Amino acid sequence: MIQFNETYTVIRNADNVCYAVNVTVDCYKGSLVYKSVEKRKSIEDSSVETLELPDFDKMTKIDSESLQYIIPLELKTDTLPQERPFYIGEGTEYDEFYQIWIQQIKDIGKVDIIKQRLLEKYSEFDGGTQ
User: Fold this and answer.
1) Is 6 within a domain?
2) Does the residue 63 lie in any domain?
3) What pLDDT is recorded for position 130?
4) Distance (Å, rounded) from C-alpha 105 to C-alpha 67?
5) What residues contact residue 4 under an 8 Å CB cut-off, 6+ apart?
6) How far is CA 118 from CA 9, 25, 87, 114, 126, in A?
7) pLDDT digits (tens), the chain, 130 positions
8) Concatenated DSSP letters for 8-57?
9) Structural domain count, the chain
């Protein structure tokens, strides 16, 4: 099986303004490996829930491709993200814009093109993807 992990890294200029997002698509062979992570349910509720998330550090990476998304002028910001964890209704302009950047990146479709190219390149490992 082929698995993918997308990493989004926001790039700032010398004036600390976000101007681009580097997107890296890592390609792994084999089944997903999971790790348990605890997360608070909400700011009001200190109880935690356990989530099972992919543990890419324990998987075999076979390739990686990147692209750069240039942030439109009206979506540039010099604000910083809200300290983690943050909850719905909180956050900064950065947090709001980050969600828009990621959606625009997905809408462009280049990440899907990279994934398709990697699937074709490593078809010998592909018994299906997750």
Assistant:
1) yes
2) yes
3) 46
4) 10
5) 25, 26, 27, 28, 115, 118, 129
6) 21, 9, 35, 6, 10
7) 899 999 999 999 999 999 999 999 999 999 999 999 888 777 677 788 888 999 999 999 999 999 999 999 999 999 998 876 555 556 789 999 999 999 999 999 999 999 999 999 999 987 654 4
8) EEEEE-TTS-EEEEEEEEEEEESS--EEEEEEES-SS---EEEEEEE-GG
9) 1
Per the structure block, which two tokens stand in for 86?
Answer: 């943050």
- Report whether 9 contacts 89 (CB < 8 A): no
Please say whether the beta carbons of 67 and 111 come within 8 A. yes
pLDDT at position 89 is 58
Nearest to 39 by CA among 28, 52, 56, 26: 52
Domain span including residue 71 = 2-29+59-125
Bridge pairing between strands 34-40 and 48-54: antiparallel
Residue 45 domain-assigned (yes or no): no
| One-letter amino acid for residue 8 of the chain | Y
